[in-house]
């Protein structure tokens, strides 16, 4: 019953006056995918979403939905529905009529559209409020009405602009699960703009990480986490130590990096890099252990500058070998078996597969 559509974004740019907000991005979002556009404020996520929706003109390039080029189509003829961050509900209508509104415009008969609207409200756990007006709801409830209203049009793709940002933390997590369940049961393509790494990791089949109007990486969350493509992705997703230095040797898939006034580090080149005489490597914080390395370059000795207890884990910050604020996340069991203190000098190490060479975007 679902009618999902692939979204094909081909060399799409957005220029506002003298600002290029989106630089010729290309991306294919397969039909039925939950896609999160993730990145810092101003990176071009919302502009990209609004160009897919048709609420913003496309400066150059094309957007295709299924087999249709929608670049010049108005929003209502694209087969997409957008859920806005500002809920845009009608203040004088009750929830049922708000949600049923687009069906009314399509000429759907009253009982049928009200029944469908009530079904959508039930999906959002709002049936008890069906006869209220939007002003009698909390912000979070209003947002769920907006979601119900977008979905009632039976879109091929639902576009969501920061849909969870107005909700309190508990509701946010509950609604996050609801969104995923909804997307899975409807089977349609969701494109969801978010600032939150955690939200994107929890929801997405594809995370698209944007920076300064460009796509740094588009991949499954596990790939993004395990194989960040660039230093930006590794830093933005967190849980990696990113070290920059000068390349002193590169043999097979093994690279040796020298940090100015510091130590040498080994990393595995997984093929992403277009290497120059400098390189960035990423080391997973949760794969670092206290202890001497098995091989020179797979660890260093440094001074503990901070110890942070996190319940099931402990976060250590260590300075040494020319690296500031190197992070190691140890399990609580591991840490408390041999606790260390601030100011102590400790050896840290990791395995050859835990340090990878990062690529760089060529613009
Ligand atoms: N209507 C506009 N006129 C001029 N510049 C704009 C306009 N809309 C956005 N921009 C600029 O384009 C860039 C990208 O904005 P966009 O809203 O797409 O980013 P974003 O990643 O969604 O940011 P946020 O997370 O803060 O919403 C920013 O530099 C922004 O200032």
Descriptive account of the structure:
The protein has 363 residues and is of the alpha+beta class. It has three domains: 1-62 and 156-226, P-loop containing nucleotide triphosphate hydrolases (Rossmann fold, 3-Layer(aba) Sandwich), CATH 3.40.50; 80-154, no CATH class; 238-358, OB fold (Dihydrolipoamide Acetyltransferase, E2P). Helix content is 25%, strand content 36%. It has nine helices and 20 strands. The chain has helices at 45-53, 95-105, 110-123, 139-151, 169-186, 197-203, 221-226, 231-237, 332-337; strands spanning 7-16, 19-29, 34-38, 60-65, 68-69, 80-83, 157-161, 189-194, 206-211, 214-219, 240-251, 254-258, 264-268, 278-284, 289-290, 299-309, 313-320, 323-331, 345-349, 355-358. The chain has a six-stranded mixed sheet, with helices on both faces. A five-stranded antiparallel sheet has the order 13-12-11-14-20. Strands 15-19-16-17-18 form a five-stranded antiparallel sheet. Strand 1 (7-16) and strand 2 form a beta hairpin. The longest helix is centred in the middle third of the chain and has 18 residues, at 169-186. It is elongated, with a radius of gyration of 24 Å. The relative contact order is 0.12. The mean pLDDT is 92. The chain binds adenosine-5'-triphosphate. Adenosine-5'-triphosphate (ATP) binds at residues 16, 19, 21, 39, 41-47, 195.
Summarize the structure.
The chain is of the alpha+beta class and 363 residues long.
Task: Record the SSE blueprint.
Elements: E1 7-16, E2 19-29, E3 34-38, H1 45-53, E4 60-65, E5 68-69, E6 80-83, H2 95-105, H3 110-123, H4 139-151, E7 157-161, H5 169-186, E8 189-194, H6 197-203, E9 206-211, E10 214-219, H7 221-226, H8 231-237, E11 240-251, E12 254-258, E13 264-268, E14 278-284, E15 289-290, E16 299-309, E17 313-320, E18 323-331, H9 332-337, E19 345-349, E20 355-358
Parallel strand pairs: 3-8, 3-9, 6-7, 7-8
Antiparallel strand pairs: 1-2, 1-4, 4-5, 9-10, 11-12, 11-14, 12-13, 14-20, 15-19, 16-17, 16-19, 17-18
Helix pairs in contact: 2-3, 2-4, 3-4
The protein binds adenosine-5'-triphosphate.
Keywords: ATP-binding, Nucleotide-binding, Transport
GO cellular component, one term: ATP-binding cassette (ABC) transporter complex
Organism: Neorhizobium alkalisoli
